[in-house]
Design brief:
The structure is a single chain. By secondary structure, the chain is of the alpha+beta class. It is built from eleven helices and 19 strands. The strands form four sheets. Strands 10-11-12-9-3-13 form a six-stranded mixed β-sheet, sandwiched between helices. The protein has a six-stranded antiparallel β-barrel with strand order 14-17-16-15-18-19. Strand 6 and strand 7 form a beta hairpin. Helix 3 crosses helix 9 and helix 6 packs across helix 8. The chain is globular, with a radius of gyration of 21 Å. The mean pLDDT is 97.
């Protein structure tokens, strides 16, 4: 049996093959890294629209009268303040403050929460949530990953593509607020459409039953053919999220770092009741972080990649690049790195050790790219 035969497949696997997608192993799945080219796909999302298969993500549904209060005890952000029909970005931490995963929570009802986790952490988060729920009355945990497909339609023409496929959704761009979701029908199938994404562009993520995924995928591609829509792989997904300064688990986030040092401290609500990791995070806030995550751009010719050492002006290694690469939109190399707080000011000179050659860089304001206001 080959390694490829061991990989999981999303419901759209045959579609990726038929479109000439270059499939690579990712989080246990065979996933398309690109179709027509990373830069072309990246540009399509920034200027028109892109369609992503993100069905590898994990979906865990928690239901019952105590579902909201239970989930709220597992995360740093405050789900109690979130309204039904609203989504919430948050971290799920260990007792010591290390990040188990970053999640998006969807408050489906007063007694129902959908947790969306990273594919690489699916088993860990299912186990964590299930263990924490053991013996607790009023909440039931169900892993729905295997029966759920998730598509992301992103870009300035995303809502035009949606309405081209389903005219009844023509006003959705005006009526659906950011980080809110609604139920609808698309290509004859029931779906949940959320105004969320991982690209820095406007757009939606579409949840559906696995069996409906192919019809919706084909329908959207056909509807968007005259609008510049392209299928987009993981390669452009990464360059897009980096430009928007969106964190990636395993790079900016991990069990060895807390949300404050990772640059997502805004998700930590210390005024909410007890949650896993609260005491450790309170101590970190009181003491101050020993590291912080900042953006940089390369001044010299070179690309700062994940894991490259970061040096101060005296040539001392003071940190590490967490993410980095060329920015197709900006035409320069950018990245994120962890450094001591005293080196975090915009304009601070740094060096990046690019395989033995130190290249000059400097701290810059993030996000590197912000979409134009409509």
């Amino acid at each position: 049996m080959t390694d490829a035969a061991l990989l999981l497949q999303t419901p759209l696997h045959a579609e990726h093959e038929s479109l000439g997608g270059k499939l690579v192993p990712f989080a246990g799945y065979a996933m398309p890294i690109q179709y027509s080219g990373i830069v072309r796909e990246h540009t399509a999302v920034r200027t028109a629209a892109g369609l992503f298969d993100v069905s590898h993500m994990g979906e865990i549904r928690v239901s019952g009268p105590n579902a909201v209060s239970f989930v709220n005890q597992l995360v740093t952000n405050d789900l109690e303040r979130t309204k039904v029909g609203q989504a919430l970005y948050t971290c799920c931490c260990r007792e010591d403050g290390g990040i188990l995963d970053d999640l998006i929570l969807y408050k489906v009802a007063a007694d129902e929460v959908l947790i969306v986790c990273n594919a690489s952490n699916h088993a860990k988060i299912v186990g964590h949530v299930s263990t924490q729920a053991r013996g607790r009355a009023g909440c039931t945990v169900k892993d729905e990953t295997a029966t759920t497909a998730l598509l992301a339609l992103q870009g300035p023409r995303a809502f035009a593509v949606l309405s081209a496929l389903e005219p009844s959704l023509g006003d959705l761009g005006a009526s659906l607020a950011s980080f809110h979701f609604t139920r609808a029908a698309l290509a004859g199938a029931p779906v949940t459409i959320a105004r969320t994404g991982y690209t820095g562009e406007d757009g939606v993520e579409i949840f559906c039953e696995s069996a409906a995924a192919v019809g919706i995928w084909r329908g959207l591609l056909a509807a968007g053919e005259g609008l510049g829509l392209l299928p987009v792989g993981l390669g452009a997904r990464d360059t897009l999220r980096l430009e928007a300064r969106l964190s990636l688990y395993g790079n900016e986030l991990g069990e060895d770092i807390d949300p404050i040092e990772a640059g997502v401290g805004w998700t930590v609500k210390m005024d909410k009741p007890a949650f896993v990791g609260k005491e450790a995070l309170a101590q970190r806030l009181a003491a101050g972080p020993s590291q912080t995550t900042v953006g940089f751009e390369m001044v010299g010719r070179g690309v700062g990649r994940h894991g490259y050492p970061v040096l101060d002006g005296a040539g001392n290694v003071v940190g590490v690049v967490t993410s980095g690469g060329p920015s197709p939109t900006l035409g320069k190399s950018v990245g994120l790195c962890r450094v001591p707080p005293q080196l975090a000011a915009v304009g601070t000179a740094l060096g990046v050790d690019c395989r033995g050659k130190v290249i000059e860089a400097q701290v810059v304001k993030t996000p590197f790219y912000r979409r134009p206001r409509a």
